[in-house]
Amino acid sequence: MSIVPEFVLQKVIAEGIRQFRENQKLLPMLFRNLNVTEVAELQRYIRDQPIDLAINWPDSQMKLPSIILSLKNETESESFLNELMQGPNSIQNTGTPFRKETLTAPATVLGGGSTSRTGHPVQPITDPIQITDATANTVEFDLVEPFSVTDPFEIKSDQELILTVREGTGSGQRRTVSSITPFVGSDGNYVVVEVTSNWATSLDNTSIIEFQIQSDTPFAVGEPAKLFEDDQFIERHGALYSTSYQALVVGPNQEITVFLYAILKAILILNHDYLEQNGVIDLKVGGTDFVHRPEYLPELAYQRALILEFQHAFDVYVEAAAVSEIRLALEVSDSSGGLVGVVSDTNLDLSA
User: Distance (Å, rounded) from C-alpha 47 to C-alpha 9?
Assistant: First the structure.
């Protein structure tokens, strides 16, 4: 995915500070070599003191304490032939990004929106599907290839596989999936999905469902638009970049600066999986002290910098030029190379 690393890092750091304020176990765990009184004082400080978080340098006098993100350098580390990262076949196999929804079985035009709990991002993993039958806690639908849904027991511990009723009878209901069982035989090919609790309103063959993965991670970065149709040929162009960012920690005294520096490192470790999901690859963390810069800092300020080095893919998706016609012509020539005649001239129309 094409990412803006500043916004991903800013979101992670802001959410990480909130986690340290709400989870009373994090600070005692991290600063286990301090005594109880010192940890309690630090907890009160982190809970009550605003921490300014800025991208690049603030346009006014810096507030203390502060964390400032700035780009140190960025270099293309791995290029691709003609900058083609994925061709149309590869994208179709892995899923077209920004895909517009289509139904996998004949139904009315889909108009209902998805429903989810506020603060719990969901990721649709199938197109909407029209069911053929249902019981109190199951749904059944025709098995249409390709159909591939992650087994509910194989997803990450902080995620759930959710079945959402998008439209029709029972629309708006959401249930956690407990099992998915495909059946292939003389009676037909179909799938039976069992959910963990009964439907409040019984479903019927007008109900349209969708499988979603819901994460317990209470924050997300971005909301991709729906741009491309399934039958469009899409190419992914771009390159991998090696990037280095500086997270400058500025505090009113030496102790707070050191503590915030350690908290920032812990935030990056605690949210490592989330950073990878948002395109921050092979993150390496280093650190250094910086000299006082009076043009940016108040007179009494102490600073320490965290250096973040990682790779990320910058890419764009474009519609590829598709071949619409193939012409096959057979010609006969004499020994001198002169054209005698055309034996066959056939055009194959591929646009139909």
Answer: 21
- Alpha-helix runs per DSSP H in the chain: 5-22, 26-30, 36-48, 88-94, 254-270, 272-277
Q: Quick check: helix, strand or coil at residue 319?
A: strand
CA 307 to each of CA 12, 53, 279, 294: distance values in angstroms, whole numbers, following the listed order: 16, 16, 18, 21
pLDDT at 148: 63
Three-state DSSP state, 45: helix
pLDDT at 73 over 70: yes
First CA to last CA across the chain, in angstroms?
A: 32
Domain boundaries, the chain: 5-79+236-319, 101-215, 324-352
Query: Can you tell me whether residue 198 is helix, strand or coil?
Result: coil
Percentage of residues of the chain with pLDDT beyond 90:
30
pTM for this prediction: 0.64
Please tell me the CATH code under which domain 5-79+236-319 is placed.
Answer: 3.30.2000.10
In sequence order, what are the residues at sequence separation of 6 or more whose Cβ sits closer than 8 angstroms to the Cβ of residue 80? 238, 239
Query: Would you list the DSSP string of 84-153?
Result: EEE-HHHHHHH--TTBPP--SSS-SPP-PPP---TT--EEE-S--EE-SEE-SSEEEEE--SS-----TT
Beta bridge partners of 321: none
